[in-house]
Amino acid sequence: MALFLSTFVNKVDKKGRVSVPAPFRAALADQPYGGILAYRSLQGSWIEAAGIDRLQKFSDELEQLDPDRPEEAERYNLLSTLLGETFQLAWDEGGRVLLPQPLLEYAGIGEEAAFVGQGKFFLIRDPSQQRAIVEATVASRLETKRARDATSQAPSPRRE
């Protein structure tokens, strides 16, 4: 399975074509499909993408679920919706894919797209959204660390 790391920002042309970062294409080189599979994220207003192997695992899981069993119905519906809404995006000789208009609009992507590695998949989102998320995450972690450090350095109450 491919491993996607780091963040890359690439230009999106007027037709919606964008170059998939070379390290991401290299990670997918052994896949039977020459491109990426992309869908609207259910976690936020961005695109999630991966190689066909990841979506094949979702498909295999879906086949094992029984939609009539209450404990499996929610997962069945989630995977069914995800697979039904996935776009297969083949890359051209330059490593570009054409991001469909519904995905561009959903993610608010304009002239640039940030490709953000997430390990087994990656995100495609507006670079300003990516920067804001990173800054908020770092600020939150620093605040938590400062609070924890202040608590651990405070004198403990004396017992008499």
From TrEMBL:
CDD domains assigned: MraZ_C, MraZ_N
Known partners and oligomeric status: Forms oligomers.
Main location: cytoplasm
GO biological process entries: negative regulation of DNA-templated transcription initiation
Signal peptide: none
A GO term, aspect molecular function: DNA-binding transcription factor activity
One Gene Ontology CC term in the entry: cytoplasm
Entry's family note: Belongs to the MraZ family.
Compartments (UniProt record): Cytoplasm, Nucleoid
SUPFAM superfamilies (alphabetical): AbrB/MazE/MraZ-like
Domain SpoVT-AbrB residue range list: 7-54, 86-129
Gene that encodes the chain: mraZ
InterPro entries xrefs: MraZ, MraZ_C, MraZ_dom, MraZ_N, MraZ_sf, SpoVT-AbrB_dom, SpoVT-AbrB_sf
Keyword list, A-Z: Cytoplasm, DNA-binding, Repeat, Transcription, Transcription regulation
Name this polypeptide is given: Transcriptional regulator MraZ
Pfam families: MraZ
